């Protein structure tokens, strides 16, 4: 996984949140003292054993926050399968926009999603902020009352199946039509919760500075 961005690391420290790094490869379960598990910018997939540990964790009241976009090897299949239990499916490839109001700097893969008015996102709306989502995975959500879509694309978005190998922003055979969710909040059993952003770069210091925080 990536190192936490300096701005984000400083902010959570100011909120009196202590962070500890651990590996599920060497743990039989999430440590009891953990109030939340953060998975930040993974570049490779987790194992099925790790996936099952995390699924049990949130189903038993655990909180999990994930920032994970497509990797150069494709979709992080086991990691994203955590969402399938709640009717959320990740589309292969990288989400791109045709609507210029929904992307930044002339690059259709640097997305400016629609921000829903929720408890999590209301401060962004009140402050007139944009959320910049570069290199994101498109997610489709079934009609599940436990899932709240936080950030969404326009109706003209689609997923480029070629991923990092894309050579055109035009729609080709094999590309999947949107619209997509780019961030969701999921209410799990026993007051567990998953908050998931489908880009590893949402909190990157460079993009954070572009959106003025």
Q: How do the strands line up in the largest sheet?
A: 1-2-14-13-10-7
**What percent of the residues sit in helical stretches (DSSP H or I)?**
10-25%
Give a quick account of the main beta sheet: strands, pairing sense, barrel closure.
Answer: 6 strands, mixed
Termini separation comes to 23 Å
Which stretches are low in confidence, meaning pLDDT under 50 for 5 or more residues running? none
Number of helices: 5
Gyration radius, rounded? 17 Å
Run of helices and strands: HEHEHEEEEEHEEEEEEEH
Structural class: alpha+beta
> Tell me, what's the shape?
globular
Main attributes?
single chain, 213 residues, globular, six-stranded mixed sheet, 24% strand
Quick recap of the structure?
The protein has 213 residues and is an alpha+beta fold. The chain contains 5 helices and 14 strands.
Please provide a written account of the structure.
It is a single chain. This protein is an alpha+beta fold and 213 residues long. Helices cover 19% and strands 24% of the residues. The protein has helices at residues 6-14, 48-59, 77-84, 122-127, 205-210, and strands spanning 37-40, 63-67, 88-90, 94-96, 103-104, 107-111, 114-115, 133-134, 139-141, 147-152, 158-160, 176-177, 181-187, 193-197. Helix 2 (48-59) packs parallel to helix 3. The two termini are 23 Å apart. The mean pLDDT is 93.
Write the layout of secondary structure elements.
Elements: H1 6-14, E1 37-40, H2 48-59, E2 63-67, H3 77-84, E3 88-90, E4 94-96, E5 103-104, E6 107-111, E7 114-115, H4 122-127, E8 133-134, E9 139-141, E10 147-152, E11 158-160, E12 176-177, E13 181-187, E14 193-197, H5 205-210
Helix pairs in contact: 2-3
């Amino acid at each position: 996984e990536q190192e936490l961005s300096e701005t984000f690391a400083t902010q959570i420290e100011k909120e009196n949140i202590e962070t500890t790094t651990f590996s599920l490869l060497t743990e039989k379960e999430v440590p009891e003292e953990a109030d939340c598990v953060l998975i930040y910018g993974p570049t490779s997939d987790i194992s099925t054993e790790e996936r099952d540990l995390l699924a049990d964790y949130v189903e038993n009241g655990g909180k999990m926050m994930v920032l994970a976009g497509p990797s150069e090897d494709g979709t992080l299949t086991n990691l994203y399968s955590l969402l399938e239990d709640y009717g959320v499916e990740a589309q292969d490839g990288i989400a791109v926009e045709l609507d210029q109001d929904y992307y930044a700097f002339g690059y259709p893969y640097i997305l400016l999603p629609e921000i829903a008015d929720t408890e999590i996102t209301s401060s962004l709306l009140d402050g007139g902020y944009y959320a910049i989502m570069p290199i994101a995975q498109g997610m489709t959500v079934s009609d599940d009352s436990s899932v709240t879509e936080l950030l969404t694309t326009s109706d003209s978005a689609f997923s480029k199946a070629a991923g990092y190998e894309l050579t055109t922003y035009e729609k080709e055979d094999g590309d999947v039509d949107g619209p997509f969710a780019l961030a969701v909040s999921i209410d799990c059993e026993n007051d567990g919760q998953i908050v998931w952003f489908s880009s590893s770069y949402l909190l990157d210091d460079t993009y954070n500075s572009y959106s003025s925080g």
